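Today's session is about reading a structure prediction critically. Students often jump straight to the picture, but the first step is always the sequence itself: look for stretches that repeat, for charged clusters, for runs of hydrophobic residues. Only then move on to the predicted structure, which in these notes is written as discrete structure tokens rather than atom positions. Here is the chain we will use throughout the hour.
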Amino acid sequence: LTADCVRATADDQWFDANRPAVDRLAAYLLQLRHNSRRDQAADAVSRGLLFGGAEADNHKSPDYFFSGSAWAWRGLLETAQLFVEMGGRRNDPRLTGRGEELLAECEELRSDLLRSVSRSIVTSGDRPFLPPIAGFDKPFADMTQDRLASYTNYRYWLETLSAGCLTAEQERMIFDYRVSQGGEILAGTRFQDHMDNWPYWHYAHGLIAH
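Below is the predicted structure for this chain, in token form.
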């Protein structure tokens, strides 16, 4: 959002006033990633991913959600690119250098994320199942079978798609599984015992990208 705002307005004064908050957020995300790499074995399926809650309703059930790591990557990527753009325009090598450091962090985070997704895909059923959590190996028989399945159908998969971090093949797995296992009615999102399309923009963004 910060990058979009600065690019749309060219308001350098606003950027300078708010950059400390952006730097703190970036540092927090990178600290979560550092903790993940420090505390897990080199071959752990979730190593390098960010641990936390996927959204407010389920904040008491933190885990290595792909959606959180994917959007951490996207936020850091946009921030890094903005820093490089502005550093070049301002002839500010320190700002450019920080952007390049963040770009390197983004590349490593995406590599860890894609590796984890690839290792977590379950292929034993009729179609591949890409779980919402690293290492989760119980494919949903129905996308509203329980709370985790419903939230995956309603939000976790959708936000993973809109980050634009996964490969095209992996994103197709989400589309195909959601439709085949009862995740939609008339293209709308099923959520437990009702319909809820509040985060649907994320899914629409994924559909348009394909």
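Discussion point for the tutorial: The mean pLDDT is 96.
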